[in-house]
Design brief:
The protein is α+β, with helices and mostly antiparallel strands. Helix content is 39%, strand content 19%. The structure holds manganese (II) ion. Manganese (II) ion binds next to loops.
Length: 468
């Protein structure tokens, strides 16, 4: 029996977070009414001319530099194909001279994956098939086309076939997503299609260096689908080889029934009749511009994780969760402003959504943690106030006041605890003898006296101080 090894290379299309499209002033916005964000350039109407979006180039170079790529002079080509979602019947893309080449992405487990290239191109529109099964074209009665997405700037990041497991394929996409979030180059949402993953999968006998026939799997719109599809496809190839057959090079579609299906046999480059886009010049960013982008590079995920571990004393997995949610900057800024690191981490992990800090001022976040720390807010109240801060962008004190979460300073709380001790001498004696469960008597009394405003943990720490 042969031992087999999986060989995976990933192509990830990333929608760049620009205000407008790659070659026109039409808005680049997800979720608007169909066919409202369109100009003659998006449709390739006669006489219309493309104008390259400076911000898109800047974001492409930011991602490229974050991946350690070399930025080189690049050329736009027309990639011709006839598809209803492509109003011009060609896509403007980069072919043999992409803007970024030769980078590397290091996975958190230490594996390095080479980046072959990353090129700029425009997105196609979106076709919706009705009347068939599962929204697929097969058996559909009608097709609706929305050109809002046509011309949206994409960076296609192409890895080398350096990935050796489905888990590493997933880790690669997670790390790339974390980089996109850290650099704010893309919203990077798989479920909204602002990040789309295609996987090239083949297998080979362990120890061999050959690259065997690969299949490209499309429609991987979640990390789970990616992982399942890689495993399924590798298994399919192994079964073919062991039965004395060979897989055919083709493009396959992943469906959630847990299988891949033939979509089309793989196109050759010459099917696309690439030729240089005559309406655009060579893209040759000057060195100073590239240096400026490199100098403005924010802290990248690997560094963010290390800093969080050092700053908050958390483990690497917890740090990775905070970083992948795009909350590292919020937490570290709040801690720099004096917030308790442990509480900041708990809020980031448990009480904030991905990108949940968009509306959140780090200084307000630090104030909230301080209010919790001094006992002005209980943990439950703090969570409620935080949710409202995210909604409204307001400061925690005014939200707490609105809800009647009156501030209770520590001397006020200590007085209440002392009163509860004085009222319950028998229980106090037992507590001093080490009977922990009578603590509830005091906590209950303080809660009652404070009308539920007191923080149970603060009460118990005062009790322990008094016991000595
Ligand atoms: Mn592409």
């Amino acid at each position: 029996m042969t031992d087999w090894e999986v060989v995976v290379g990933l192509e990830v299309h990333v929608e760049l977070a620009t205000e407008t499209k790659l070659f026109s002033h039409a808005p680049n916005r997800f979720g608007d009414d169909p066919n409202t964000n369109i100009t003659p350039v998006c449709l390739g109407l006669p006489g219309s001319l493309p104008v390259l979006n400076r911000r898109a180039v800047e974001l492409a170079m930011t991602i490229g530099l974050a991946l350690g790529c070399e930025i080189q002079p690049s050329v736009f080509h027309r990639k011709n194909y006839f598809y209803p979602d492509m109003p011009k019947d060609y896509q403007v893309s980069q072919y043999d001279r992409p803007i970024c080449v030769d980078g590397v992405l290091d996975l958190p487990n230490g594996t390095s994956v080479g980046i072959e290239r990353a090129h700029l191109e425009e997105d196609a529109g979106k076709t919706t098939h009705l009347g068939g099964e599962d929204g697929r074209i097969h058996g559909a009665q009608e097709a609706l086309v929305d050109y809002n997405r046509a011309g949206v700037p994409l960076l296609e990041v192409v890895s080398r076939p350096d990935i050796r497991s489905a888990e590493d394929a997933r880790a690669y996409v997670e790390e790339l997503r974390a980089i996109l979030i850290a650099t704010e180059a893309s919203e990077a949402r798989l479920e909204e299609g602002s990040m789309r993953v295609d996987a090239n999968v083949s297998v080979r006998p362990v120890g061999s260096q050959e690259l065997r026939t690969r299949c490209e799997i499309k429609n991987l719109n979640s990390l789970r689908s990616l992982q399942r599809a890689v495993n399924y496809e590798a298994e399919r190839h192994i079964n073919l080889y062991e039965a004395g057959e060979e897989p055919k090079q083709e493009t396959r579609h992943w469906s959630e029934d847990g299988r891949t299906h033939t979509l089309r046999s793989k196109e050759e480059a010459n099917d696309y009749r690439y030729f240089p886009e005559p309406d655009l010049v060579l893209l040759n960013p000057d060195t100073r511009w590239i240096e400026e982008i490199a100098a403005a590079m924010p802290e990248l995920p690997a560094q963010q994780r290390e800093n969080l571990v050092a700053l908050a004393g958390v483990d690497m997995d917890t740090a990775a969760t905070v970083v992948s949610k795009g909350l590292a900057h919020l937490v570290s800024t709040a801690v720099d402003l004096g917030a308790n690191a442990g509480r900041a981490i708990i809020h980031a992990v448990q009480n904030l959504a991905i990108d949940g800090a968009d509306n959140l001022n780090p200084a307000h976040f630090a104030e909230l943690i301080e209010m919790e720390h001094t006992g002005a807010l209980t943990a439950t109240q703090s969570k409620m106030v935080l949710a409202e801060m995210v909604e409204s962008g307001l400061d925690p004190a005014s939200i707490a006041q609105k809800h009647g979460f009156e501030s209770m300073d520590s001397s006020e709380l200590e007085e209440m605890v002392d009163a509860a001790i004085a009222e319950n001498p028998d229980a106090w004696e037992k507590f001093c003898e080490g009977e922990e469960k009578v603590q509830g008597v005091f906590v209950g009394a303080v809660m009652k006296a404070s009308k539920g405003q007191a923080d149970g943990k603060a009460v118990s720490s005062i009790l322990r101080q008094r016991r000595g």
